[in-house]
């Protein structure tokens, strides 16, 4: 009954469906049966995909139709000295940042940026705004009814808060922003999701609030996500209003450090930043006024179990670079960095270990402080990557670096 070959045969014969195997076998055996079936049908050898080191059972909340594990090389950049004045930041001290990537030269680049930040005496980072959003869309008969619904929502925020917060022990409703388009009412709910990235938490809480709105008004819910949230799509609303954490990291680097470690000058980095990240991005109609923040964000997301699709929002970031008193001041402001240290993929074993490297596994004290700290460390790692790539461009080392390390 629980032999992978027998199970695979039963799927082949139409007796079982591929996704029903866990009802007849433990998760390891079910995954082995799927591999057996796929290997027979596709001629692929799944020996490496099947050679994963965590318990299949641990991944049950994270994946369906499991066949094994995708393995990525993981490296580390740092240490990054952060917020050493000890005032106001959530992260404080030296942090090693685990990064999972397949892009040669990326970690070397971030690591070089970290070494520059160390030589400069450290950087500061702060979360300046926080809140995870979900924006349902309701159908109404027209603008008159839309105005009535919005008025009801504005007058009943407390009732809606009560309903929403009944579904969660941690989430807190911060505000509801209405948007009306013709006979559509969008309500952008924003929650403090503490240490969770919060998309499940906030979606469940918003559904409860929507039930009350439908009971009390004439509005009819069309979709719990009406795309004004905006999750996993490029969107100006996230770049302007923020989503998840809005976080900024900055550093002042002495001229001699720029010259010795980055082989260029503060002026050349500032010029490259203006012409490339600001003017080039403006001309391209980009939402990302940075060089490659998504590179560090994606690698940190994969290492620490964040939702990889939300790298889209992480790319809403502006890099600044200017010469101040002969030194280089540089900053990176990420408008919508969606991270958590509990829930989702953070519970998986390798991702847990990576969060342990940062000292940020699980819930913080106070709740939310671990996720704030993670946002600050990732932003600083991404700033390190910005500095190194801008320097490589300014000193014309980009292609040679990738010739040496990236192939
Ligand atoms: C490759 C470097 C760092 C060499 O830079 P370098 O200055 O010649 O290196 P170095 O050997 O003198 O070492 C300096 C520091 O770099 C680090 N470092 C150096 N090598 C390693 C290594 N193997 N492993 C780990 N760390 C390394 C390390 O911190 C070291 O300090 P130390 O610890 O020795 O005191 C530099 O040329 C560089 O950063 N280039 C830029 C590469 C880059 O940023 N690539 C990112 C991807 S590009 C992309 O995907 C986006 C793009 C470009 O399309 C976006 C856009 O449109 O702009
Ligand atoms: N549903 C959707 O529309 C979407 C879902 N996702 C997926 O959602 C998942 C992430 O959702 P998310 O809600 O973050 O995670 P989970 O669904 O895993 O829920 C995390 C839960 O952890 C509990 N918790 C314990 N300690 C804390 C703490 N210190 N701070 C905050 N919460 C704590 C909370 O329970 P309690 O609420 O009971 O207090 C919280 O709801 C990812 O897997 C992602 O891929 C992504 C995009 C959209």
TrEMBL record:
Coiled coil regions in record: 143-170
EC identifiers of the protein: 1.1.1.34
Domain of life: Archaea
Family matches, as SUPFAM superfamilies: NAD-binding domain of HMG-CoA reductase, Substrate-binding domain of HMG-CoA reductase
GO molecular function, one term: hydroxymethylglutaryl-CoA reductase (NADPH) activity
Reactions that this protein is recorded to catalyse: (R)-mevalonate + 2 NADP(+) + CoA = (3S)-3-hydroxy-3-methylglutaryl-CoA + 2 NADPH + 2 H(+)
Key words of the record: Coiled coil, NADP, Oxidoreductase
Top EC class of this enzyme: oxidoreductase
Membership in a protein family: Belongs to the HMG-CoA reductase family.
Name of the protein this chain belongs to: 3-hydroxy-3-methylglutaryl coenzyme A reductase
Species per Swiss-Prot/TrEMBL record: Halalkalicoccus tibetensis
């Amino acid at each position: 009954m629980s032999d992978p070959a027998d199970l695979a045969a039963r799927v082949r014969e139409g007796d079982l469906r591929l996704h029903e195997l866990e009802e007849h076998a433990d998760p390891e055996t079910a995954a082995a049966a799927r591999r057996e079936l796929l290997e027979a049908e596709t001629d692929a050898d799944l020996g490496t995909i099947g050679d994963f080191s965590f318990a299949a059972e641990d991944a049950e909340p994270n994946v369906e139709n499991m066949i094994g594990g995708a393995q990525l090389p993981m490296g580390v950049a740092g240490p990054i000295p952060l917020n050493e004045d000890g005032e106001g930041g959530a992260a404080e001290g030296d942090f090693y940042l685990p990064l999972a990537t397949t892009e040669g030269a990326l970690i070397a680049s971030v690591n070089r940026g970290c070494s520059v930040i160390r030589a400069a005496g450290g950087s500061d980072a702060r979360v300046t705004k926080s809140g995870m959003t979900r924006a349902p869309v309701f159908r109404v008969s027209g603008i008159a009814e839309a105005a009535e619904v919005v008025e009801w929502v504005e007058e009943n925020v407390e009732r809606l808060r009560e309903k929403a917060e009944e579904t969660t022990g941690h989430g807190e409703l911060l505000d509801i922003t209405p948007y009306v388009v013709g006979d559509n009412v969008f309500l952008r709910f924003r929650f403090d999701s503490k240490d969770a990235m919060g998309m499940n938490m906030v979606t469940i809480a918003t559904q409860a609030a929507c039930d009350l709105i439908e009971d009390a008004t004439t509005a009819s819910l069309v979709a719990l996500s009406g795309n004004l949230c905006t999750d996993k799509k490029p969107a100006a609303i996230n770049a302007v209003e923020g989503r998840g954490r809005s976080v900024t990291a900055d550093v002042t680097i002495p001229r001699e450090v720029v010259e010795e470690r980055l082989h260029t000058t503060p002026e050349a980095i500032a010029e490259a930043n203006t012409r490339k990240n600001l003017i080039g991005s403006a001309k391209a109609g980009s939402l990302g006024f940075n060089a490659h923040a998504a590179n560090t964000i994606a690698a940190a997301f994969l290492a620490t179990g964040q939702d990889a699709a939300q790298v889209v929002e992480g790319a809403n970031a502006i890099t600044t670079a200017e010469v101040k008193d002969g030194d280089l001041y540089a900053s990176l402001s990420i408008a919508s960095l969606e991270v958590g240290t509990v829930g989702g993929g953070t519970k998986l074993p390798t991702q847990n270990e990576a969060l342990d490297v940062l000292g940020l596994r699980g819930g913080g004290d106070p709740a939310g402080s671990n996720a704030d700290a993670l946002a600050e460390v990732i932003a600083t790692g991404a700033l390190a990557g910005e500095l190194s790539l801008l320097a490589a461009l300014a000193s014309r080392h980009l292609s040679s670096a990738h010739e040496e390390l990236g192939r």
